[in-house]
Amino acid sequence: MHVSAQTLRDRLRGSLIAAAATPMTADREVDLDLVSRYLAGLVADGAGALAVLAHTGRGPFLPPEVRAGVIERAVALGVPVLVGVGGHPDAGGPGGSDAEGGSPAGDGVARTSAEARVAADLGAAGVLVFPSAGDRPALHDAVWRASRLPMIAFDLYTRPCPPAVLAEILAHPGVAGLKTALLSDAMGCQRAIALTREAGRLAITGEDRMFGPSLLWGAEAALVGIAAAAVEVGAAVLDAFRGDDLRAFEEASGRLDRLAQATFTEPMEGYVQRMLWLAAAEGRIPASHAHDPYGPPLPAEERAEVVRHRGRARGGVAAEQAE
User: Fold this and answer.
1) Residue 103's pLDDT is what?
2) Residue 224 CA to chain centroid, in angstroms?
3) How far apart are CA 207 and CA 225, in angstroms?
4) Phi, psi at residue 204, to the nearest 5°?
5) In this structure, are residues 116 and 147 in contact, taking their beta carbons and an 8 Å threshold?
6) What is the pLDDT of residue 315?
7) Looking at residue 92, what is its pLDDT?
8) How many independent structural domains does the chain possess?
9) How far apart are CA 14 and CA 104, in angstroms?
10) Of 36, 116, 167, 206, which one's alpha carbon is 20 to 30 angstroms from that of 153?
11) Domain that holds residue 206
């Protein structure tokens, strides 16, 4: 394991890493000054690191100049920054087709490697490598050779990784850890965490719907979309897990679970829009920039329901902090 991967692994252990959204208008316009304020708010409220341009941030869809601006603004905050690379919709990535095909494999690898080089040049701490349809270990090796940035592998529900392939990826010297986001596959999550720990890498939960259980199964950090707005709700679970008060952990996990039930539900890709609604309700972003043009349409009445669940979860955290 390369020393840079060891360093990132140890630096992220125990952290809540916010999978940040990218606030934008319905016309896909991004205000980078707003992005700076939004990301700074996530850090101020308990995020120990940031993952930008990942699945929640719609990174695969954004043009290079916007990607570079988001990375620069995130790095300026002084916390570890992971940058999502790959997963392009024209190559069958998240948000695109799950079928084999799309852009030629070589094109996808070259584009992903180029994104990693840009992330390295702009001061990112590491990259989160989207799952691909082709040779995944080869993709990770190409990203490593291109950027020399430590990598977080990504086991995502839209394209789960076979165990043998996952073990090969985890043996790469540039891989610092694995984020598992398998959504409803408890056994797959347990297996991925076990393989990651056996390889000496950092097991990172991305399981918004299995957050508390995944910590009990051995996850040592969290990189979750629910922290795109409700940062303190996730931070409270990690804080309680590190303590010795079982009831506090149970209550904190229950609050997060209830919020996740309202935000991470069918259509699942709608979670990005739901988290943007919450970010706007919390005053993190204006309503004009709380749009996800890349996700499915959601009924207008769902917004009030999501915000109502956020109020209940936030009330529980506030009551704890007052004690």
Assistant:
1) 40
2) 5
3) 9
4) -115, 125
5) yes
6) 58
7) 45
8) 1
9) 39
10) 36
11) 3-322
The DSSP line for 286-312 is -GGGB--TTS----THHHHHHHHHHHH
**Residue (of 108, 105, 149) closest to 128 by Cα position:** 149
Chunk the chain into consecutive blocks of 10 residues (it has 323) and report each block's average pLDDT, rounded to whole numbers: 97 97 97 98 97 96 97 98 91 40 63 97 98 92 97 93 96 98 94 97 96 97 96 95 93 94 94 97 97 94 88 58 46
Angle (CA) 174 123 150, round 5°:
10
Distance CA 174, CA 18 (A): 22
- Structure tokens belonging to residue 296: 């499915």
Torsion of CA 172, 174, 177, 178, to 10 degrees: -60
CB distance 103 to 91 below 8 Å: yes
Question: On the CB side of 31, how many CA atoms lie within 13 Å of its CA?
Answer: 14
Task: Please say whether the beta carbons of 280 and 228 come within 8 A.
Answer: no
Under DSSP, is residue 122 helix (H, G, I), strand (E, B) or coil? Answer: coil
φ, ψ of residue 201 in degrees (nearest 5)? -100, 170
Strand pairing category for 175-181 and 151-156: parallel
CB atoms within 10 A of CB 97: 13
Element (H, E) at 41: helix 32-44
Token couple for 271: 């979670």
Candidates 51, 54, 40, 41; CA nearest to 15 is 51
Length of the chain counted residue by residue: 323
In the prediction, which pLDDT does 100 show?
33
What are the backbone angles phi and psi of residue 183, rounded to the nearest 5°? 75, -65
CATH number at residue 178: 3.20.20.70
pLDDT given for residue 116 in this prediction: 98
CA–CA separation, 190 and 20 (whole Å): 25
β-partners of residue 127 are 83, 151
Q: Are 205 and 196 in contact (CB under 8 A)?
A: no
Strand partners for 51: 19, 82
User: Rounded CA gap, 102 and 89, in Å?
Assistant: 8
